[in-house]
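Sorry to interrupt, but I need a hand with the structure work. Could you add the entry underneath, on a fresh line?
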Amino acid sequence: MRKIHKKEGNVFAEICPSRKVISRLSGKWTFLILALLEEEPKRFNEIKNEVEGISQKVLTENLRSLERDGLVSRKVYTQNAIKVEYGVTLQSKELLKIVKQFTNWSEQNWKNILKNNKMHDSKF
């Protein structure tokens, strides 16, 4: 068993904070929100309209968590009417390389996954 040192993480150790990072990033909506914000900042309703199936409550919770984690920025403009935009941060740009690989892989392999599911389920 690997010991945890204060300067390194061990996601397999129950008490290691890096495990919480894995848990946070593996949420259903996290990668979708980050991938959507990669190209340009967006307003709340733009995100909600483009990420099909996400509720207002869940989007709010996810954006707050991502902002707290330093992965999403929230910028308030107070010109004529208040306008809030969400965008990626420098820290999330490194993560977005992985997110992009993951989303690309998902889009290229979903048919094989469904085929494998059918084959597996037909055995039972």
Observations:
- The chain has five helices and three strands.
- Helices lie at 17-25, 30-37, 44-50, 56-68, 90-122.
